[in-house]
Amino acid sequence: MRAAVLRALGWTLIGLVAAALVVLVVAAFGPLPARLLKFSPAAARLSANEHILAEGAIRTALLQAVGGILLVFGAVTAWRQMLIARGQQRLGRRVAVTEAFAKAVEQLAKDDALALRLGGVYALDRIADDDPTERRRIAQILSAFVRDGAPASGALPRDVRTALEVLTKRDWSVGIDLAGARLAGASLPAARLTDAVLTGTDLSGATLRGAILRGADLSGADLRRADLSGADLRTATLTGAHLSAARATASTRWPDGFVPAENGIQSDRPA
Q: What 3-state class would DSSP assign to 78?
């Protein structure tokens, strides 16, 4: 309602300005120059020819003023149209993203079609690249997809592995929540898991070489036999984590006060 009122007022103002300009143009070719000239103290000393030339100069100045106003008016109109076009473009893009998002989520629910589930994962990956504002929701959806899709035993399905790759290849505005997921043997080299929620997560035998786990909550997580070579676990929470036979190197970074040798970690770092 307010937008409609503002548009109506805008068109009314445009109409009034246009009418005023028409009146000014008509007056410029009529008596207006002569009347304006009378206000000049030097008008009485002008000859007839000089009077005509002076009126012509005033008329030219008036027409130039009208031209300048039209130029400014045209620029303002063009700017307004550009803003409208941008708004429509943003709206169209938003609608397209929303439709793509809904379709991708629908594909993830296709229990009997691996290709569609993979397509849904890749579609969400593309949306995360194109629209960073959607990343929080995408991280939550893919995290739930991994948690629900990880089997109780055996290797991870291809669609779950793909979702893990998408989740761990970039930083998200919200920590990834994979609490309690069974990710035993997962291959996650250089995974970006900053501030991830991994409480009780089964990462036994997982490859986490060069993974970034700063601030991650690994309370109660199973990291036995995991490859943590070069991983960054500074400020991570390792309370109750199982780390026996996990592998580390001198470049592995641990939380302050953490002693790898006391937790059964195989490391080339001096004890």
A: helix
